[in-house]
TrEMBL record, chain A:
GO terms for biological process: rRNA processing. GO terms for molecular function: mRNA binding. This is U3 small nucleolar ribonucleoprotein protein MPP10. Residues 1-22, 105-188, 201-258, 399-418, 522-567 are annotated as: Disordered. It is found in: Nucleus, Nucleolus.
Automatic annotation (TrEMBL), chain B:
It comes from Musa acuminata subsp. malaccensis. Belongs to the PNO1 family. GO terms for molecular function: RNA binding. GO terms for cellular component: nucleolus; nucleus. This is (wild Malaysian banana) hypothetical protein. Keywords: Nucleus, RNA-binding. Its main location: nucleus. It is found in: Nucleus, Nucleolus. It holds the Pfam family KH_PNO1_2nd. SMART domains: KH.
Length: 567, 221
């Protein structure tokens, strides 16, 4: 593409024009799907074509910002479009002015002548733009080239619309002025084709614009309906060209819902347009026209109804209505008593039968759920049992062994058999034992004692054998020794293993006092008095002992200062 | 005799008084025999024989007769016509109470005690026989009475023997009459046990009480 600016700038205007037209032709001839995939040839052609168109429009502009479009490879979509926009904006205002002028005093001329009267360049452009229309339909987002094409086509569309608007207006005026149905139809057919292609973009805009144009329409109600409608059409379309192409869905749907029979098949007023025998396209055109008219009429109806304000509501009003109904519903629900699930504590009597089954209740289970007994659980338990049995480790409770604190009491077992000895014999034996004639019978404890002593003797003899019978038992000397109140462990060992506070002396040996010790609180009044009396007595006795000593011994010469007599 | 004796004694006193300067000699008398005490009269005791003890009496006659005649020196004979055992003191009966002891001994036999058991009565003088009836303790009729008697005896007499052995008494349960032979305290203990049994306490409870009591009694001695 670097070569192209050189080639286009250097050759003559005709050469450039020819190239541009060729590019346009190529663009037009390419199949629509080819636009989907990026191709440098198409891009190149698109740039050339836009450059050509730009340059062809330049002469019509009073103050063109650029002489030629800078559409080299370096320039991206935004930049190219800005250039086009810069050029086309003043042009648009110029065209609008022209249109208004034409409206005011429509020249009664043939379309071709009208075109001739019009701007020459416009005609060529219009043709080419119309030709371009075929390729317009399949525009899609994507490439730079395609973006370029879009802008280019938008620009073209804008221009086309303007042209069409002019044409329409002129055609309609001409048709009506002549009263020639064929002419009208022909024009209408063309118009219809264009209108269909534009419908997608403009349809949404129509709805939006209708509210703005209410005033204008109401003003024009008195005038001829056809003219009004056409004019409205033109105006709407004109305005649409100028404005955005964004659709407004709500208005569309609203209007679609409120379309009536009259809108499509016309009332008495609109029949004039549709009377001629129409086949195929013409029918469609009429329908389209009817639709357009219908839309207009619905617009009119809307206006009429709005004046009454009953049947059809705007979207906002409908929303408000819905909201109000919702609010009412909720208020009503709040006033009614709540359902049983929403109340607090509900007994079985207060709720319908079996209603708790339908509701998904959620409450805390304070009980641990029963364990699911599976094969693994039982197997594990059995393993534990087997292991325990093999080990012999049972968790049996073992009784704590009681320490024998004292000798087991001798219990005389009750003999439940008839006594062998008679009563006389029993007393005889008893007497004999008492008197000493017969030896005392050994009791059970005696036998046990005998047995124990016998065993001990045996043990002692064995131990003595260990020490070769060289034992010398200490002689027992009973002598008086002063027992010091020292812990027993200190007496026994030098290094005490454990701390023991066992004293040598027994508590009663330590105790120095007499009789029952009573606390101050336990004393009776008499006892208290007695204590005090004893104390006093003791104190007095002590004082008596001390005072003579003090009096005699503690006086030293010069210690007491004697008053000199006479002072 | 007494008067002469009194006269003699008076005379002796007089003599003594007369011979005041001579040494006073105390008279030495021998102990009076029961025969003499009763002025040479013979004392009798008669013990009736119940029909059910007739045959045992006949069987054990010699065992009864020998200690009474030989050791107690009491004459004993059986009056078949009157069905009584008769006891009579002899001239050489050593003690006054022998007759009574023998009578008690024979009476004990008649109540149902064994000869060997009743013999203790002859030997010891602080043994007694105490008798009471079940109805004295509690009025029982029909089945209850039979059950009470059964409770007293125990299975195979084991309860009775247990009481006998522990308290050193002998018990005879004759239908509704109960006789206990033993020393006074022992009789008391046995009687208490028997009364509790009659009143309905189980044997085990009685045993435990018996054990406690007898242990205490044994400690005393």
């Amino acid at each position: 593409m670097a070569a192209t600016p050189v080639t286009t700038a250097a050759p003559t205007q005709e050469e450039a024009a020819r190239q541009g037209e060729e590019a346009l032709e190529r663009l037009r001839s390419t199949d629509a799907p080819l636009y989907l995939s990026p191709s440098p040839e198409l891009a190149k052609d698109a740039r050339t074509a836009s450059r050509y168109l730009f340059s062809s429009l330049v002469p019509f502009c009073s103050k063109p910002p650029l002489d030629s479009l800078l559409a080299d490879d370096g320039f991206d979509v935004e930049q190219i479009w800005c250039q086009i926009d810069l050029l086309s904006r003043p042009l648009l205002s110029v065209l609008r002015r022209e249109l208004n002028r034409l409206e005011r005093d429509p020249p009664a001329r043939v379309p071709g002548s009208a075109l001739d009267v019009g701007v020459a360049g416009e005609a060529a452009e219009a043709e080419k733009e119309r030709a371009m229309e075929d390729g317009e339909g399949d525009e899609e987002d994507g490439d730079e080239s395609e973006g370029d094409e879009e802008e280019e086509e938008d620009e073209e569309e804008a221009e086309e619309d303007e042209d069409e608007g002019d044409e329409e207006e002129k055609e309609d005026e001409e048709g009506e002025a002549k009263g020639n149905p064929i002419e009208d139809k022909f024009l209408k057919i063309d118009e219809f084709e264009e209108f269909l292609t534009k419908e997608e973009e403009e349809y949404g805009l129509l709805e939006r614009k209708w509210n703005k144009h209410k005033q204008k329409v109401s003003d024009k109600e008195d005038e001829d309906d056809d003219e009004e409608e056409d004019a409205d059409d033109d105006e709407e379309e004109d305005d649409l060209h100028l404005g955005d192409f964004d659709g407004d869905g709500d208005e569309e749907t609203g209007i679609a819902e409120n379309a009536r029979y009259e809108d499509f098949f016309g009332g008495i007023k609109k029949k004039g347009l549709n009377k001629n025998g129409i086949v195929g396209k013409r029918k469609r055109s009429s329908n389209a026209i009817d639709f357009v008219d219908g839309l207009e009429s619905t617009d009119m109806d809307i206006e009429e109804n709005d004046d009454k304000g009953q049947k059809i509501l705007s979207t906002h009003e409908k929303e408000l209505k819905k909201l109000h109904s919702k609010i009412e519903q909720m208020e009503k629900a709040n006033l009614e008593p709540k359902s049983w699930t929403m109340q607090g504590e509900v007994t079985a009597a207060k709720r319908p039968k079996n209603s708790a089954l339908e509701v998904d209740l959620d409450f805390e289970h304070n009980v641990r759920p029963a364990p699911v007994i599976t094969e693994e659980v039982t197997a594990s338990l059995e393993d534990i049992i087997r292991k325990r049995i093999i080990e012999g480790h049972f968790d049996d409770v073992q009784r704590a062994p009681t320490l024998p604190s004292k000798a087991p009491k001798e219990r005389k077992e009750l003999d439940e058999n008839k006594s062998k000895k008679s009563l006389a014999e029993i007393y005889e034996e008893e007497y004999a034992q008492k008197s000493g004639l017969a030896p005392a019978l050994l009791t059970v404890s005696d036998t046990l004692k005998n047995e124990a002593s016998l065993l001990f003797k045996k043990l002692c003899s064995k131990l003595d054998a260990l020490s070769h019978f060289h034992f010398a038992p200490k002689p027992v000397i009973e002598d008086m020794s002063i027992q010091v109140n020292v812990p027993a462990l200190a007496m026994e060992e030098i290094a005490p293993v454990a701390v023991s506070d066992a004293a040598m002396l027994a508590p009663e040996e330590i105790f120095q006092g007499k009789g029952d010790i009573k606390e101050e609180a336990e004393l009776t009044k008499a006892e208290r008095k007695r204590r005090r009396a004893n104390k006093k007595r003791k104190f007095k006795a002590e004082m008596a002992k001390r005072t003579p000593k003090k009096a005699g011994q503690n006086v030293t010469p010069g210690s007491t200062i004697e008053k000199p007599p006479g002072s | 005799m007494a008067s002469s004796e009194a006269a003699a004694s008076a005379m002796e006193i007089e003599k003594a008084a007369a011979s005041a300067p001579a040494a006073v000699l105390r008279p030495q008398f021998e102990a009076l025999k029961p025969h003499d005490m009763s002025d040479g009269k013979v004392q009798f005791r008669k013990v009736g024989v119940p029909t059910h003890r007739y045959a045992p009496l006949k069987r054990c006659w010699m065992e009864i007769y020998t200690p009474i005649y030989e050791q107690m020196k009491i004459d004993i004979r059986m009056n078949l016509k009157a069905r009584k055992v008769e006891l009579k003191t002899r001239a050489d009966t050593p003690d006054v109470s022998n007759l009574q002891k023998c009578a008690d001994f024979v009476h004990a036999f008649m109540l149902g005690f064994d000869v060997a058991d009743a013999l203790a009565l002859l030997r010891l003088d602080d043994l007694y026989v105490d008798s009471f009836e079940i109805k004295d303790v509690k009025t029982l009729r029909g089945e209850h009475l039979s059950r009470a008697i059964g409770r007293l005896s125990g299975k195979g007499g084991k309860t009775k023997f247990a009481i006998e052995n522990s308290t050193r008494t002998r018990i005879v349960i004759a239908d509704t009459k109960i006789h206990i032979l033993g020393s006074f305290l022992n009789i008391k203990v046995a009687r208490d046990s028997l009364c509790s049994l009659i009143l309905g306490s189980p044997a085990g409870k009685v045993y435990s009480k018996l054990r406690a009591v007898t242990a205490r009694l044994a400690e005393k001695y």
